[in-house]
Amino acid sequence: MPSAPTSVGGVRLHDVVVVLDALRAAEVPHWVAGGWGVDCLVGRQSRAHRDLDLAVDAASFDCCIDVLSRLGYAPETDWLPLRLELRASGERWVDLHPVSFDAEGYGLQGAPEATHFTYPPEAFNVGCIDDYETPCLSAEQQRRFHSGYELRPHDRHDMALLDALSG
Q1: How far apart are CA 106 and CA 112, in angstroms?
Q2: CB–CB of 32/53 below 8 Å?
Q3: Cβ–Cβ under 8 Å, residues 101 and 90
Q4: Taking a C-beta distance cutoff of 8 angstroms, is the pair 14, 22 a contact?
Q5: Which of 18, 41, 124, 133 is at 20 to 30 A from 139, Cα to Cα?
Q6: Residue 112: cis peptide before it, omega within 30 degrees of 0
Q7: What is the pLDDT of residues 14-39, one digit of tens each?
Q8: Residue 21 contacts by C-beta under 8 Å, 6 or more apart in sequence?
C-alpha cells in the first residue's frame, strides 16, 4: 500500500512530531492510539488523519494540557473522564484519553462504575513513523478499540493494516 502524502488536510506528520517532541521534552507519558497508532505499528503514514489520538498517563494529564496549550491547542470537546479533544489552527486536533494506572501496570480510562476502557500492561508498545520512534498502543489493543461498533471506511483500512501485521 503506498504511503499517504504528508500534506493532506487534517493532522499532518509534522504536527504529530511537534506534539510528540513537546510531550517527550516535558516527560509526559503518552502512547499514540487510533489511526496514527496503527501507522506507528506499520512504520509509515498510510492515510490522512483528522486527529491525533493519545492515551496519556492521568497523573500527567494537566501537564499534557499545558504543553499542548503552549502549542496553540485549546479544549473543544470535554467528555472527561473519558476524553478531552483539543483544537489548534489549521485543523489540528488532538484527542486525549487519560489513563489511570494501578501498581501492576493495568490502566483504566474513564470511571469504573460508568463507561470505561481497560488497558492491560501488554497494551503498550513502541512503533515508528518515518524513523520517529514513539510509544503507541499494541495491535491487540487497537483491535479491541475497533470492536463493538460499525466500522467506518478508515476503520476498515486500519484493521486491514493490523491484519497484515499479524499475517
Answers
A1: 13
A2: yes
A3: no
A4: no
A5: 18
A6: no
A7: 999 999 999 999 999 999 999 999 99
A8: none
CA distance 4 to 45: 6
User: What is each CA distance from 35 to 157, 165, 167, in whole angstroms?
Assistant: 9, 15, 19
β-bridge partners, 25: none
The reply to whether the predicted model has a pTM over 0.85 is yes
Instruction: Give the cell for residue 88.
Output: 489548534
Rounded to an integer, what distance in angstroms lies between the CA atom of residue 90 and that of residue 86? 12
Nearest to 107 by CA among 115, 97, 119, 117: 119
CATH 3.30.460.40 given to domain 13-159: yes
Helix axes 153-166, 34-42, angle to 10 degrees: 30
